[in-house]
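To close the chapter, one final illustration. This time we ask the reader to focus less on the individual chains and more on the assembly as a whole: which components sit near each other, and how the overall shape emerges from the parts.
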Amino acid sequence: MVKMCEALSELAAKYDAAQIIDFEELSGGYQVTCNKGKFHFTYDYQQLQSTQIPLFHWQVKRKYAEMQGLLKAETVKKPLAIRVKNICPQSTLGGGIAAVLLREIDLCEQLLSGDEIIQIFSVPHSSHPYLNAICTTRNGAKISMELGISHTAAAPVQMHEIVCRTGIITDVAVDTQTEQYPIYVYGKSGTAVYADTDYELYGMDEIQRDCIRFMLHALSAPEQLDTLRASAARQLALVHLALKGGMCS
Amino acid sequence: MRPVKLAISSLTHAHVRKYYATLSENRKLDWVAVSCNDPETISYFKTFGYDIPMYPTLEEMLIAHPEIDGVVIASSNEQHMEEMRLCCKYHKDVLSMKVPTFDEDEYNEMIRLAKEADIICQVELELHYNPSVKRLLQLIDDKTVGNLISFNATNITLSPVWAFPWQGDPLRAYGKRVPLKENDPRFRGGALSDHPHIFDLIRWATHSEFRYVYAEVADNIRDIQEEDLLFVTGEMENGVKFMLDPSWSRTETKIQRPTVGWEVFPKRMEVNFTIVGDEGLIQCDAFGPNVYYCGGPNDRYTVQYTYFDEWIGMMDEFCECILEHKQPKITLEWNQNTVNAMNACYESIATGQPVYLNGGEK
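The assembled structure is written out below.
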């Protein structure tokens, strides 16, 4: 916690985002008090209130920004479909299958530069946190989703593959099925992996890093937060409908 | 803390675009001016849209802007000595490109001048600010895989010679035209000269210096004047063995400006390590994983680099050193043994024999 506070304060000062006065960990989120006001970031998305900021930390993940950038730069053009797989251990931030679905809906809309998902046909499992779905965006792109919480999985199985008229963009390397890491240690006690990808936030875990980057981004442009809240509310409504199964829009 | 006022000289180095981005984004920095006398480079610089004053020579820039604290010497290797002299004359701190010079006398002269002028001189070895490399060095220091047996590393890239022609010119890349070996039409100054990082990092990882190096070159992939494919092996003074690959073995399109579609092999640059210890093994990819695409302009499968921010940490350190007038991690003095080892590799290629360093004996 102290580490998160220090890191956010340092980066907010370095990049002129805000002057942090206080940083508090709350149940389901964080409260940041700074020269721009008081900001309540929450990852308890089910209880999202109008004054809170949904902590959509995946939005600032570099790999997704790069994927989106390839579309924006028209290196690959005309997205037609996305294949999504996210079968993961329970997140340290909690939230269950609803949080996974919300994340992937928001992420796909982000990758497609705001093309909103307007229809979902979902097939949820009745007794396990698992759901398959086919989504349709306003511009007609189709998205297949394989989502679940696996209590036995040690690492997430994740994939985002954007299929376009002129090519493919993916976060999974060809001929690999699982997430890759920068470092593998094959030692006496088995294999350990390390995923240090942010020098400024070296030593912090991935979720902490993403949360700090997200808060930094939000504090840099607080005027955009109303749009984020409205978007999250719309997506949440869709999530609640999709969890019931069948067609919803 | 006041912002540090920086300038860039020459604009010809392959890394210079990274400096444009870092200097324009980092609030700790005030990018004051640039100097360049090459019309083509000037017009390319203008396409980026930075509103930065430009001067035809480094000296004119330094005279016009006495407020400059430090200069990023971004010139071709053969110009470094002259630019270092000027920076010392005007007492400007220096960020030197990764090889200050291959000439031993020049190198000693640089050290002397910098000391007399009491300037900070940091050598750009940006992999120290790569988070995976930082973790790797920590894992080695913590003896996660026990005592080191071998340090094996690649620093393999595409060849920059088409986009940065000075790197294909032995005189400009190595400082003089030195034949690679007898009955070989090639000269020093190619892939080896471009890739000092692994020769530096092995010294940090092993806390030891080179005992000897042995290097061999293959026939070239490209029709160029310098070496582009070679392997280096040998031993550190503490007994750790090594295998280093500093080649230009990734293939490229012969384009004049680095841009999308430059690479033919999907990944344009790989710095990978295999660290063998007596209790295990570490595999490290300093630039991975990434995202991948097949798309324009050549419909090739391509790696889109996702984590490549070494310049942020490096410039932070340079600024801190300027403000506090303290020496950086990678000084001219530290870097000299790295350059000596690279020169020893050239000597080994020329003689076909291992070359012993630091007074080492066979």
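Chain A touches chain B at residues 14-16, 62-63, 66-67, 69-70, 73-77, 164, 166-174, 179-188, 194, 196-200, 202 (CB under 8 Å). Chain A has a mean pLDDT of 94. With these observations in hand, you are ready for the problems at the end of the chapter.
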